[in-house]
Amino acid sequence: MAQLTARFRTENPRYAVEDVPFSVPAASEITDLSHLINKLLVAADADHKYVEFDFLINGQFLRMPLVTHMEMENISTEEVVEIEYVEKYMAPQPEECIFHDDWISSVQATEEWILTGCYDQTARIWSLEGKSIMTIAGHTEVVKDVAWVKQDSLSCLLLSASMDQTILLWEWNAEKNKVKALHSCRGHAGSVDSVAVDCTRTKVSDFLKETFPTDEEDEMEEAANRPRKKQKTEQLGLTRTPLATLSGHTEAISSVLWSDAEEICSASWDHTIKLWDAETGGLKSTLTGNKVFNSVSYSTLCRRLASGSTDRHIRLWDPRSKDGSLVLLSLTSHTGWVTSVKWSPTHEHQLISGSLDNIVKLWDTRSCKAPLYDLAAHEDKVLCVDWTETGLLLSGGADNKLYCYRYPATASDVGA
Amino acid sequence: MGTPPGRWLQSWSTLRTPGEHLSCSSPCFEAPRAAVPVSVCPHQQRAVPQGIPFTPSPTPVPLRSPAACGGIMPGGVFLGWRKEARAPTRALLGWEMLGGGCLGAEHLPDPHCCSSVPSHGPGGRGGGKGLILPCPHAASVPPPQDIRNTVGNIPMEWYEDFPHIGYDLDGRKIYKPIRNKDELDKFLEKMENPDYWRTVQDKMTGADIKLTDEQVDLVQRLQKGQFGDVHFDPYEPAVDFFTHEVMIHPVTNRPADKRSFIPSLIEKEKVSKLVHAIKMGWIKPRKPKEDTPTYYDLWAHEDPNSILGRHKMHVPAPKMKLPGHEESYNPPPEYLLSEEEKLAWEQQEPAERKLNFIPQQYRCLRAVPAYPRFIQERFERCLDLYLCPRQRKMRVNVDPEDLIPKLPKPRDLQPFPTTQALVYRGHTSLVRCLSISPSGQWLASGSDDCTVRFWEVCTARCMKTLPVGGVVKSIAWNPNPTVCLVAVCVEQSVLLVNPCLGDKLLYGATDQVLESYTPPEEERVQPVQWLTATIEEHSKGIRLTVQHSKALKQVTWHGKGDYFATVVSDNSSMQVLIHQTSKRWSQNPFRKSKGLVQCVLFHPIRPYFFVATQRYVRVYNLLKQELTKKLMSNCKWVSSMAIHPGGDNVICGSYDSKLAWFDLDLSTRPYQLLRHHKKALRSVAFHKHYPLFASGSDDGTVIVCHGMVYNDLLQNPLLVPVKVLKGHALTLDLGVLDVLFHPTQPWVFSSGADGTVRLYT
C-alpha cells in the first residue's frame, strides 16, 4: 500500500487547511506530513512561515511511520483517516543550574522566586536567575518539603516541613530580605515528608512518615487564619497543634495535596491513595494500587490524579470514579522509581516526572508509550520536580543541582 | 420388441401356407394332424400323483420363443425360419428334436406336457436316442411291433408303481419286462455273462440292451473327452470370414437412416432432464477418485494384550559367534596350538574347553577335508535356539521432565523483588551486616571500614556515620518498635547504640530507660562486663558497652527486645551468652560446648533457642532448659540460619552452597535442599509477612525464593525460586555478605564486598 487518504483538521484557526481528503504516502512520518501542511499553508498565504507540526490520530501522537502506527492501533487503512495536527511542542530550553550544598529534597516556585528544601537542614529562596536570595535555617533535621503559602508584594509566607517532626511557618520580607519564623507546628510522631497548602491559602495539610506503620496520621493545621496577630509574636516556636488528624493509612504517607477546597488526597506506602473530606475528616474513597506510591499530583484542568510509584510506572487515576481502583492510563518509560510527578498548570495533557534513573521526563497523556522529551541532565537521583504557571520546569536531585528549563510549549507562544 | 402382436399375426399369416397351422403365436390354433409323437400323461387316465404342482399356464413361454427370436434376429435366421415354415411338420419335428418335447394342442393345458417341452430331460434324450441310436430291441423285435414308448420327456419314476412303462404309438400299454432276478441271479449273470459290462438298461422300455462295439467306442471316446464323431477334425484350417482390411464395398449397402443424422428428440429430452437435475443439484458429479493409495497400519489398534499381540513378543534368535582367525584353514601361527597345548586340550573336559576344536593349518583351501563336527554343531545350535532365554527385559521410558514436580510460574507468585532500585554508597570496605528498623524507614549497615552507617531507606541518604574503631561483624536493630536501640558487634564488645533517628519521643524514652538503671546492691559474677558509655561515646550515640573476653561473631535480639544473645568465636563452653538489657545481666546457658557455634537465634514466638553448629542445629527449650530437637543439616558447614515468622520452619545456608529448609513438624532432616548458588552461601533471610526468603552468596547473587507455608499441617511448604538478583561486583572473591528483607514491603537489601548496599524492589 503506497497511499492513504487522510483528512487534516486542527483546533488552531491560524493553521486551518481545507477540509478535503488528501492522499498521502503510507510510509510518511511527522516531518513529511509537516511539510505537506506547510506547503498547503503557503499556498493559501504566501507570508506563512514554516511551522513544525505534531500529528494526532484518534488522540494518540504519531511517533512512527503512519502505516505502522495505524497497524498498531488497529485503524483501518481503507477509509479516510482523520488526522489532527497541533503545533509541535518545543523542547524545554535549559535556563539555570543552581548549585546547592546538599541534596535537594523539594522545590516550589512562583513567578518570581524559587523555594527549595535542602538536606542541609535549610530552605532556600532563589531568584529565577539563579541568585541566592535567602537561606532559611531553623530546622534541626533535613528539610523534606517546602511550600509557598501567600505572596504579597512585601511579605511572603512560606512553610517548611522537616524530618525533625515540625513544620515551620516563615514570613519573608522580600524588600528587606529578612525572614521570621512565625509558628512551629508540632504533632507528628515522625518525619514530615509532605506539606500542602489549600487553594484558599488558609490551611496547611502536612503529612508524615510514621515511625510505626500501624498507626498513621495525617494532620491538618490552621496556620494562617489570623496572620496579623501572629506576626507580632516574634518568638520562634510558637507552637500550633493540628486542626484535625486523618488516620487510616497503615504505612508511611509519601505525598499529600489538596485536590479542591474540601478534599485532601494522600498517597502512601501501603499501596493506596486515599481521598479525605477536609471538613469532617472522614475518608471519602480509596484507590488501591499494587506498589508503593511515592508521589501524587492533581490537575484541575483534566481532573486526574497522576501517581508515581516504585514499579517505574506513572498511573493516571480518576478520583471521582466510585468503583475504586480504576487506572486510566499507565505511562511507562522510566527505569527506576518515580519519585515525583507534577501536572502542568497550563496544559491539560502534560505532566512532568522525575525518577531515580536520573532522568526527568515530560509527558503528554496522548502519547503514553513514549514521553515527549527526556531531560537527562541530572547525574544522580531526581527527588523533586515542579512546573510553574509561567512555563518553568524545575527539577532537583541528589546531585545537589536544581535545573531550570523554560518550556515555551509552542513556537508561536514564544513569538507571542 | 415393441411391435404389437396383431402385426406379427398378420405377418405370420402371410407366411403360412393354407392349411398350415402354427402352434406358437396364435392363441387359437388347431392341433396338427400330422403324426407327431404325442406325449401322453398317465394322468389322463389316472389321478395326478401327489406332490406335483399343477399350475395352469395357458401360454408356455418357450412356445413363443421361435417367433420372438424371429423378431429379433437378423434376416438370415428369419430366412431360415421361413425355409422351415414351408414344411411345418418337419420343422416341428426338428423342433421336437431340438427341444426334446412334443406338442399337442389338446395337451397344452396339461402342466406335465408344458413342463416337458422345454426341458432337456431324459425323456427327450430318450426320444432323441430313439432317433439317433438304432434300437437293439427294434432289431430283435419283429418290425410291425414298434414298441417305441411315447411317454415323452417325463421322469420315468412316475411309472414305478405301474406294470406298464408307457404307451406305444397306438396307445397300447407297453408292459415292463418281467424281472424276477434276485441278487444271486444278478451275481451269476455278472460272473457268467461275458457281455455283462456292456449291458445297460433302457429306462424307457425297461429292457436290457447290449451296447455294440461302436457304441462302446463312442462312450469311451466321450469319457476321454474326445469328439464323438471319429471323423471330426477339430483342427482343420480356419477360414477368416472377416478381414481387418477395409473393403471398398460395405457389408450392407443400406443408406444411413434419417434418424442417424437428425438430433434425437428423445435424447434431447433426456439430456435436458439431466441438465435440469444437475442444475437443481439432484445429480452431483462423482467425487474424483483419490489417486493416493490409502495405507493404514494394520496393527495400529491392536491390543498388545490380546492373543495376537503375542506375536509381537518376538525374541530374536541368539546370535552365533562369528568365526575368528583360529577357524581359518590357514590361521596365523600364534593361533596354532603347540604340542603341550594340544595335550592339555585333549585332557580337558569338552565343556571346559575354550575352543571346541583344534585350529589346523592346511596348505590350501582345496586340501581342507570335510568338517566332522558339522552335525554336532548344528545340534548344539538347535539346543541354543531351543533353550535361549525367553524373558524380556522391560525397559520403562520415562521422560526426565515428567519427574520434576510442577511448580507454579514465578509470574503468578508476585510480589517479589525483581529489579535493583537503589544503591547505598558510602562504605569504603566490605559491608558485613545489615539491619533495618522495625518501621522500615532506617537501615543500619556495619562494615570493615570500622564504621556503622545509618541510611534513609527511601532515598539512600546516609543519615549518620558512626565510627566504632573496629570491624563490625554483626549488627541488630532492636525489634521492639518502642525502643530505638541498635546492637553492634565490634571485636570483643557489643555496643548498644541509640541512632537518634525517627520519633524524638521514642529515642528520648529509650535513653531514659537506659539511664534509669540502678545497679543491684550485691555484685553478681558475670562472664562479661557492662560498661556505661563515656561522654564522648555518648555524644556519638553509644549508650552501653558489653565487654566480652574474646572476639564476637554475632548478636541477635529476642523478639521482645529486652534479651539479646551473642556468639563468641571460642571453642569453650562460653560460646553463647544471653544478656538482659534492662537488668544488665548476662548468663551462659550452656555448660558444655557441642561444637563450634556458627549462629544463634531466638524463636519468634515460643521460648525456644536455636543454636547452629557446623553440621547441626540444636533447638533448646529455654523454660525447661533442655534440648528439644537436633536438626541434621546434611551440610558440611552451616554459615547462617533464619526462622520463618511462623516459627515452624528454619532455613540454613551453608558454605558448600546449599540451602536446607527444615520443617520442624516434619522431620529433623531437611525437607528440601536447594542448590541454586554456585558458591558458598553467606546469609539467608525470611520476610516477615510475604512468603519470601532470600539467600546471598559468594557468587555475587541474591536468589529470592517463594516459600509458602500453609496452615494446613498436611500440606508441605511450596518452595519456588523466583528471581536471581545480580548487581554486586565480586571483590576479594566475595560477593554478597548479608541479605535482609524490608519489614513491610517485598523488598530485599543486600550488602556486598564491593562496599555497597543495594535495594531490590
From TrEMBL, chain A:
WD repeats lie at residues 136-171, 246-286, 295-318, 331-367. InterPro entries: NLE (IPR012972), WD40/YVTN_repeat-like_dom_sf (IPR015943), WD40_PAC1 (IPR020472), WD40_repeat_CS (IPR019775), WD40_repeat_dom_sf (IPR036322), WD40_rpt (IPR001680), WDR12/Ytm1 (IPR028599). Residues 6-70 form the NLE domain. Transmembrane segments: none annotated. It comes from the Eukaryota. One of its GO terms (molecular function) is ribonucleoprotein complex binding. PROSITE patterns: WD_REPEATS_1 (PS00678), WD_REPEATS_2 (PS50082), WD_REPEATS_REGION (PS50294). CDD domains: WD40 (cd00200). One of its GO terms (biological process) is maturation of 5.8S rRNA from tricistronic rRNA transcript (SSU-rRNA, 5.8S rRNA, LSU-rRNA). The keyword Zinc-finger does not apply. Gene3D superfamilies: YVTN repeat-like/Quinoprotein amine dehydrogenase. It holds the Pfam family WD40. It is found in: Nucleus, Nucleolus; Nucleus, Nucleoplasm. Keywords: Nucleus, Repeat, Ribosome biogenesis, rRNA processing, WD repeat. GO terms for cellular component: nucleoplasm; PeBoW complex; preribosome, large subunit precursor. Component of the PeBoW complex, composed of BOP1, PES1 and WDR12. Within the PeBoW complex BOP1 interacts directly with PES1 and WDR12. The PeBoW complex also associates with the 66S pre-ribosome. Component of the PeBoW complex, which is required for maturation of 28S and 5.8S ribosomal RNAs and formation of the 60S ribosome. Belongs to the WD repeat WDR12/YTM1 family. This is Ribosome biogenesis protein WDR12.
UniProtKB/TrEMBL annotation, chain B:
It is found in: Nucleus, Nucleolus; Nucleus, Nucleoplasm. One of its GO terms (cellular component) is preribosome, large subunit precursor. The keyword Nucleotide-binding does not apply. Pfam families: BOP1NT (PF08145), WD40 (PF00400). InterPro entries: BOP1/Erb1 (IPR028598), BOP1_N_dom (IPR012953), WD40/YVTN_repeat-like_dom_sf (IPR015943), WD40_repeat_CS (IPR019775), WD40_repeat_dom_sf (IPR036322), WD40_rpt (IPR001680). WD repeats lie at residues 424-465, 674-704. Component of the PeBoW complex, composed of BOP1, PES1 and WDR12. The complex is held together by BOP1, which interacts with PES1 via its N-terminal domain and with WDR12 via a high-affinity interaction between the seven-bladed beta-propeller domains of the 2 proteins. The NOP7 complex associates with the 66S pre-ribosome. The PeBoW complex associates with DDX27, BOP1 interacts directly with DDX27. Component of the PeBoW complex, which is required for maturation of 28S and 5.8S ribosomal RNAs and formation of the 60S ribosome. This is Ribosome biogenesis protein BOP1. It comes from Cairina moschata. The lineage of its organism: Eukaryota, Metazoa, Chordata, Craniata, Vertebrata.
